[in-house]
Amino acid sequence: MTLIYDINKQQAVVNKNTDDTTETVLSIRHLYKSFKENHVLVDFNLDVSKGETVVVLGKSGSGKSVLIKCIIGLLQPDKGDIELFGKSITGINETELDKIRAKTGFLFQSNALYDSMTVRQNLEFPLRRHWIKVSQQQVNDMVMESLEDVGLAHTVNMMPAELSGGMRKRIALARTLILKPEIILYDEPTTGLDPITGKEIIGLMMEIQQKYNTTSIIISHDMNCVRTAGNRIVILVDGMCYACGNFEQLLKNTDPKVKQFFEGI
Question: Given 3.30.470.20, 3.40.50.300, 3.40.50.2000, 3.40.718.10, which CATH number is that of 1-103+227-265?
């Protein structure tokens, strides 16, 4: 499935992909989420295919973080359905949701590292699920492989406070990778980083996607990230998937609600 901008209806609509062999990893249908009178998501629809990188672009407070929290089950939508790997996550029990989350990596904007734990202990934390059975040698191998993926194997016994901001972001990504997720959700991955470090993180995200053929959803205000990393860009306006396309297509779009995101480029 792909989303194509319909200028007449002023929203992105769902059309059938001509390639029927494409596997849909994430499917969102008619999603609504409000907080009292604040209608954040309004009939939001989106399909994401295996190996695809989709960037969600929107103003502050437009509902991007709410969307990503709904996808991983931290928030329950008011209406609509979310399917991950062909299974609806709406209303399922915590055990089943946890197993789906194990296939879904989430890189927090704040990194969410435990300051009192070493790098090794931070990476081991996702392996504490009671149904994951691995030997200590396997744990050691998984930790080191994840650290090697982000170029920081030498930090294994360091504390987060000893690391730079860019290094902490890499360690958080290594922790996300340890269970080899099929889809990774990135919440503002370059926020708070200097431009050079931000570019390094974007490059690392792309390397990870190519190495493991992960599906990626990136929430970002960073137009360099939007331009470089996204196969497809979704513009979130008025709670809906207002427009969708690649960077060049949206850059040429004359709709004022789309143009505002590309001014000065």
Answer: 3.40.50.300
